[in-house]
Amino acid sequence: CYQLGYHEKQLLELLESYENIIIITHLNKKWAVTNKQLSAVKKLIISFMNNFFVENPYETSINKKIINNQLNIQIDFIDYLLIKLFEDKKIKKQDNGWTVSNYKINLSNEEQELKNMILNILDNELFNTSSVEELGEKCTVSDLKLIINMLKICESEQLIIRINQNLFITSSNIVTLKNKLINFFKTKNTINVSEFKNLINSSRKYAIPILEYLDKIKFTYRDNNERRLSS
C-alpha cells in the first residue's frame, strides 16, 4: 500500500477513478490499496495473531505495537485494519488489546485445578487477599509466573478484579462490597477510612487501594477525607 501526501491531490483523484483501488482515510492519513491487497493484509494479521497465541498460550490479548514490531505495516494502518477486523467480527477487544474471536485459552487439568484453587483462596479471603508470593506459598507453586498467568486469565474472564499490581479481589466479593456500601449509605451520607475499614473488616493497607478503585470506577467519589456514593 502507498501512503499519500496531502499535496498529491491529482494522483488521489486518478487513483479513485479505478474501480479496483480503495482510498482509505484514517487518522488524517490516506492509503491507496487494491481489494486484493486489503484482503491479503487482513488475513496476514489474523494469521499472525493465531500464531502469537499458539506461541504464547497464557496471553489473553495482543496490541498493535506487537503486530507493528513483527510485520512491516505502518502502525496507523494496523489501527485501521484492527477496527475493520473488529467490525467484521473476526477479532474482539480483550483487556487492553485484541484477540481472535474464536480464541479460548486451553488449560491442562493441573492448570485448571490451580486456577480454581486461586479463585477459592481469594474468594474466602474476602478483602484481605494474598499477594502473588503468598498465593504461590498457599498453592505450593514455586513458579510465580504461573500464578501471575492464572491471575491474568481470571482477570480476562472477569472472575477477579485487579485493584493494583499485587491486590486482587474476586468479582463476587466486589459485588458484596458494593451492596455493603449501598446499605451503609442508607443511614449515612459519607464514609471515612476508619468506617470503611470496619465495614470490610480490613486494614488500611487494603482499605485505601480499594477505596481508590471504587473512586476510579465512579462508584464513590472523594469529598475531602470522606467518600460519598456516586449518583
Task: Give the rounded overall mean pLDDT.
Answer: 90
Q: Strand arrangement, largest sheet? A: 1-3-2
The strand count comes to: 10
Share of residues in helices: 40-55%
Class of secondary structure makeup = alpha+beta
Q: Tell me, what's the shape?
A: flat
Alpha-carbon Rg, integer: 24 Å
User: Which percent band covers the strand fraction?
Assistant: 15-25%
What is the CA-CA span between the terminal residues? Answer: 50 Å
How would a textbook summarize the main sheet? 3 strands, antiparallel
- Contiguous low-pLDDT stretches (5 residues minimum) are none
Order of helices and strands: EHEEHHHEEHHHEEHEHHEE
In DSSP terms, counting alpha (H) and pi (I) runs of 4 or more, how many helices?
10
- Note the quaternary state here: single chain
Could you please describe the fold and organization of this structure?
With 231 residues, the chain is of the alpha+beta class. 52% of the residues lie in helices and 19% in strands. The protein has ten helices and ten strands. A three-stranded antiparallel sheet has the order 1-3-2, with helices on both faces. Strand 2 and strand 3 form a beta hairpin. Helix 5 crosses helix 7. The longest helix has 21 residues. It is flat and about 70 Å long. It starts with a strand and ends with a strand. The mean pLDDT is 90.
Concise description?
This protein has helices at about 10-15, 35-55, 65-70, 75-85, 110-125, 130-140, 145-155, 170-185, 195-200, 205-215; strands at about 1-5, 20-25, 30-35, 90-95, 95-100, 160-165, 165-170, 190, 220-225, 225-230. The protein has about 230 residues and is an alpha+beta fold.
